[in-house]
Amino acid sequence: MSGRDVADILSATVFLSLSGLEGLLQATLSRLAADPASCSTTQLSDAIFAAGESGLVGGHVAHHIAVDSLSDYCVDNEHKWRSGSSIARLVYGFSRVQCTKRSLYNVFATRLRIRPILHTLQQADISVVMSGFGNAKYLDKTLFDRLAKKVEDLSPELNAADLTMVLTGYSRMNLLNTPLYQRLGERVAEVSTDLPPAVSARLLHAYGHVGVKHDNMAGSLLTSMCSKLDALDANKAVEALFALCEMDHEADDAQMDKLAGHIADRIDEVDSNGILQLCDVLQDLNWRHERLLMAVGNQSAELQLTGNNGGITPRASRSVLDTLGSFMIHHPNARQHLTEAARSISRDESVVAELEYNKQQGAQALEE
Predict the structure, then answer these.
(1) How far apart are CA 107 and CA 111, in angstroms?
(2) pLDDT over threshold 90, residue 358
(3) Fewer CB within 10 A of the terminal residue: the chain, N end or C end?
(4) Is 106 exposed, middle or buried (0-12, 13-18, 19+ CB in 10 A)?
(5) How many whole angstroms separate alpha carbon 34 and alpha carbon 86?
(6) Long-range contacts for 151-160 (Cβ within 8 Å, ≥24 apart)?
(7) pLDDT given for residue 105 in this prediction
(8) Pairwise CA distance, residues 184 & 163, whole Å
(9) For the residues 67-92, what does the mean pLDDT come to?
(10) For residue range 52-78, what is the model confidence (pLDDT) as tens digits?
């Protein structure tokens, strides 16, 4: 079987049910890596894109070897890629299969800056490539500025998928571009009714991550999420609440209260990181939501006792007790089961502080 045949098979898997196909994917990736030259650039880009979309690549050494070999081939033959669409799919695919080779992203970012190639990019390609570079945490400021200008011009036409990919990619790079965020936020508000709640949570996270305030978008997404709470995972709801806090959204919003109530109802799904985020939200907003506070205490004690959802970290235990104490919530169960773990983090912080102090004193003594 030639590399061309393997590429066709691999690119087709994205349209299939991928359950149980991990072995097939591993075999086809290895075959493709052994004979990439027999594929066209379009076939190779589609194959890598499909491998990334499968979500099955990255867990095995064989995957990493195949991906490394393919990325080397693409870097060595970058001059063959003349289509912006193919480059976009290639970059996105490699980012999803956990390729961390900076030379790959550098080479293809440079290719995309070539004017004739840049002009071949359609809106869907721009969304894909911005998401890909965002996944890889690779920033080419010149290229991103050009792509952002194109996105702004096309903003009235963007659909939900484009908005999600562009905004999450841009946010992951910690880029601040207020006009872009404001314009796309207005477009998000327009399409918010049709968004699945998990997508709404991702978009809120994108804005919260860079601390951009957009009340119209936040209110629209929150209303949309609260109308579909049954489909919203509790940890995603926590992420959304945390993002709203980072966006300085008002805690007295009735929809915020509804979201907090949903989290309290499904608190048994929340993990240690979610508990920590909830404590940060409640304290930062000075929000005495008694029902949620009691639920946080109950779940924290349960995590400590059972170890479910990965258990609870000492830092989260410390934060829970501090939060309950700051709102004067009496929760003997949480205090009984979390105190020892909370003390350990306090001791650790004290030791670190003492070591840092001794280090500073030693440095001053050497200078003298």
Answers:
(1) 6
(2) no
(3) C
(4) middle
(5) 21
(6) 151/123, 151/126, 151/180, 151/184, 152/179, 152/180, 152/183, 154/123, 154/126, 155/183, 155/184, 155/187, 156/187, 157/123, 158/123, 158/127, 158/184, 158/187, 159/191, 160/191, 160/194, 160/195, 160/199
(7) 96
(8) 7
(9) 94
(10) 887 766 566 777 788 899 999 999 999
- pTM for the model stands at 0.81
Instruction: Determine the 3-state secondary structure of 253 from DSSP.
Output: coil
Whole-number Å distance between alpha carbons of 276 and 318: 9
Helix or strand run (H / E) with residue 163: helix 160-172
CA nearest 13: which of 67, 48, 50?
Answer: 50
- Candidates 236, 187, 53; CA nearest to 131 is 53
Q: Which two tokens stand for residue 23?
A: 């072995």
- Phi, psi dihedrals of residue 58, rounded to the nearest 5°: 125, -15
Beta carbons of 318 and 345 less than 8 angstroms apart = yes
- Amino acid identity of residue 254, one-letter, is A
